[in-house]
Every structure is written in C-alpha cells, then in structure tokens.
C-alpha cells in the first residue's frame, strides 16, 4: 500500500537530550571564542624609514655658531598613526677639530627637541648609536642634525670643517 503522507520521525528522549547537549556545547564554545577575541591584545606592526646623506652640508666655518644639516624627511608612506620606538644615528666629519676643541652634534626631532649624539670626552670625528629618547613621538616627524664647534673665543676656521656623512633610521610601531 502506498503512503500518501511522510511519516513523522520518532523523537526519543535520548535524541532530545543529545540535541540539547550539543546546542549547549556550541553556545559555550562560541562564548569562549568571543571572550578570547575580546581579551587578546592586537599586535602592533613594526616598520622603519632610513636616509643617508653623504654631504658636505653643514660645513662649519666659524666657532661658536650652530650649523644645520639638510632635514631628514620621512617618506609619505609613513602612517600617521606610527609611533617611534628607537632611532639609530651615525655621523662623520672629515677633519679632526682644532686642538682642545670638541665637535658638538645634536640630533633634533622637529619641535620635540634635540639629543646630544656626540661624545664629549674626546675630539671625535664620527659617532654612532641607538636611542629611545624619541620614543612615543610621531613616526612622520622630520629630523635634522645640528653641529657646532665651541671655543673660548669666536673665530673663522681655516680650513673649514666639512661634514662627511649623516645617517638616520627611525623604527616605529603602528
């Protein structure tokens, strides 16, 4: 004999309990995943920009004056949300300073201030290092070197003191 209707599936007590248990487990897992997603901190991406200037700029012509190098402008692709973590620097000047004088070199970060990056105990013609002194300021900040040669009196240098190279690498998170 042909059936004209589809018979109802029999639902047993065991089937209902199993269905409820699976539904409960799925809801608990969804809650755990949502909680972990909310409490896991986002990982910041790290990047850097770097420039090297092999230049005679700035040239020191006279003692007791400040001379400013060409600005290190960050690339246009530097994110506005980027924040500096470290800055690596290197500078070199061709000639040693006159006796008993010391080159004074500052690395300046826009309007955020300057950091002394020259050794003060000896007459260096170059120096390099890494600093976190600029940590927290925007990664799209323009930097420049400021150099001078202090003396008890002001006089014209002959020969003038030419710069050889300035390098800068800015590492940042965004």
Automatic annotation (TrEMBL):
This protein's UniProt keywords: Signal
Which SUPFAM superfamilies does this UniProt record tie to the protein?
Cytochrome c oxidase subunit I-like (SSF81442)
- The positions making up the signal sequence are 1-44
Query: Which Pfam families does the UniProt entry name for this protein?
Result: FlhE (PF06366)
Domain of life, per UniProt, equals: Bacteria
Protein name per the record: Secreted protein
Q: Species name for this entry?
A: Polymorphospora rubra
